[in-house]
Amino acid sequence: MASHTLVWEEKQLMKQLMLEQLLNRQEKLAVIGLGYVGLPIALEFAKKMDVVGFDINQERVDLMNNGVDPSKELDASAFENKSIQFTANPEDLRDVSFYVVAVPTPINKFNTPNLNALLSATRTVGNVLSKGDYVVYESTVYPGCTEEDCLPILEELSGLKLNEDFKLGFSPERINPGDKKHTLTKITKVVSGSDEASLKVISDVYASIIEAGVHEASSIKVAEAAKIIENTQRDVNIALMNELSVIFNKMDIPTYEVLEAAGTKWNFLNFYPGLVGGHCIGVDPYYLTYKASSIGYNPEVILSGRRINDSMPEYVAKEVVKSLIEKDKPLKNARILVKGITFKENVADIRNSKAAELVLALQEYFKQVDVVDLHADAEEVKHEYGIELGEESGKYDVIIFAVSHEQYNSITPNQLHEFATDDVLLFDLKNIFKGNFNGIPCWTL
User: What is the pTM for the complete model shown?
Assistant: First the structure.
């Protein structure tokens, strides 16, 4: 043990402080996975140090080498004056000393964790890991995953031992797609390490780019759990709002007016009903419930919230049917228009989109369901959901504003009537029009 510790100390002495070596460009930092999370991190670090940006998708790498963000979040200027090498070749990672893993961690059709990308990335790092290196995970996982699932792979493939030969950490991502205010550097970064020494180094490295500062968690598991409950908390609160919306709709009470009134109390929490999709809020709670079940606990509140939020697309589709029947409109030839299919406003991201699930639910009832979205990629939508994107064509009996894209806030009555029947039914799922559009009542959640 003493000899191994000496080797580590000698290696650290040779490298001096990791941050200093990175800033002096004597060592390199790599980001594994260049999606919504990894690319902004890589580019931010590349302002100050040499970075290797690695992704297994060569087409995405080619785009980034030409200053194009495949996720459509960053413009070309974000790539300028950055010391970064984009690559799909694992051999380019061999001279790296600080690895950041930021690959997707989705769920499968059974709502259980799909760690394929994470474990694949871990094998990639394990094959090039050397003494004195650091490996930090940003991918959202259940508490214990970094040390129980990833660490054994790193040790086996590298032949190295944790804390004797290399260090491990976890720093959960806090990227919010489409948010131009709470950007990467302006959000406090949670960091953790496999021991006190690694925590200090990892904290220093992230503090070099995070203006808002870092929070040092006492352990990797604490940092993993903190990330999980951030989104689980939001999920449960939105589920409560969705359930209240169902109740109030049955009572013919406008939910948003209720929330506005209740919100005048100083300690009322401002959550709103809606379609809960995306790669975080609709996914992360299942990582926690999976882990809870594995240790013999049935998480009732979290799973109940998930069931409510997952049921909302079908609930809205049935409300469309009911509204047409109440208005004596024929269902057989009803024409439906859905505006917006991304998982949230003003982004191109369609992962786990509940708006897409709403479209699929509507197609079970109606022959004519047209979908438009200025942000989403038509080929991606077709590949992921089998849904064709198009343009408004003719007059529609029902128009559903499923996503509150900025363009919809300024729509005029003339623009609406170009593709709406005289007795059109409006469904405004994000309450863009506050219950009424130019005299036309809007159904809202």
Answer: 0.91
